[in-house]
Design brief:
With 262 residues, the protein is mostly helical. The protein contains 15 helices and no strands. 62% of the residues lie in helices and 0% in strands.
Length: 262
């Protein structure tokens, strides 16, 4: 899951169409920072670890709500959407039908935590449903976690692509060169997930995957969190990039990363 967090940090300074759609940029600068993508990834990881691998839906959801509210209130200015921060501050939080890409950016721990793709997808659905219970929001989380599971278990890029197309119906036929001219900042799963998958599919390394995101632009921190999480599972991350990325993270989030082990 550190791949999602580092992706978030690298993409943070280009969010809201602040980049020039180029692969040529410094990965880390003083303008980089972690956002809600990192905070909620830590929250999901903590909830899954606290629940244990065999927990039932009620237990997992209860721990997700507790953990997401705790971390969201600890870092209230991390860049959440309006409805989500209202959920975080609510006394009785309920799902609100979101199909935003937040369900995909926070789910990476589920892709690493379980031993079968069926269990991975089941828990990924739960991580979405506590807030993003629209079918597209659920699909965003489930497809991301499934891709991570396949990548870390040796599937080829072609096998991952075929699985995502067949199981989730995303159109992965467009190239980045075709996406780039008209693509801009959007925050729904429908216009985030195919693009994130394509950034991974056209890369040959973790770093190249992040550079592909900046090449098309858009919601770059979230695209990098999603694509970067899959890229980490497929290629791993060079130690220098891990060390540089961790320098932007506070101790409490680093403790979650250490506990999780990925």
């Amino acid at each position: 899951m550190i791949g999602a967090m580092i992706g978030d940090i690298v993409g943070s300074r280009f969010e809201f169409d602040r980049g020039d759609k180029s692969r040529d940029f410094e990965l880390f600068t003083k303008r980089c920072y972690f956002t809600d993508d990192t905070v909620m990834t830590a929250a999901v990881a903590e909830a899954l670890m606290d629940s244990g691998k065999d927990a039932d839906e009620m237990t997992v959801k209860s721990n997700l709500i507790r953990s997401m509210k705790k971390w969201g209130q600890k870092y209230p200015d991390a860049g959440y959407g309006g409805r989500f921060i209202s959920w975080v501050l609510s006394e009785d939080p309920k799902p609100y039908g979101s199909y935003g890409n937040g369900s995909g950016m926070r789910v990476s721990p589920a892709g690493w935590f379980y031993d079968t793709i069926e269990r991975t997808r089941e828990v990924a659905r739960w991580t979405a449903k506590v807030t993003h219970n629209h079918p597209e929001g659920i699909k965003g989380a489930e497809s991301t976690a499934a891709a991570i599971f396949l990548a870390r278990n040796g599937a080829s890029k072609e096998e991952i692509k075929r699985y995502i197309e067949d199981e989730f119906g995303y159109d992965l036929s467009r190239t980045l060169d075709e996406i780039r001219p008209t693509y801009g900042h959007v925050e729904d799963c429908m216009r985030t997930m195919p693009e994130a998958f394509e950034c991974f599919l056209e890369a040959e390394s973790y770093e190249e995957c992040l550079r592909n995101v900046m090449y098309i632009g858009g919601d770059t921190d979230t695209l990098c969190a999603i694509a970067g999480a899959i890229a980490e599972a497929f290629w791993g991350i060079p130690q220098e990039i891990i060390s540089n990325g961790k320098a932007y993270l506070p101790e409490d989030i680093l403790n979650v990363v250490k506990r999780f082990g990925k």
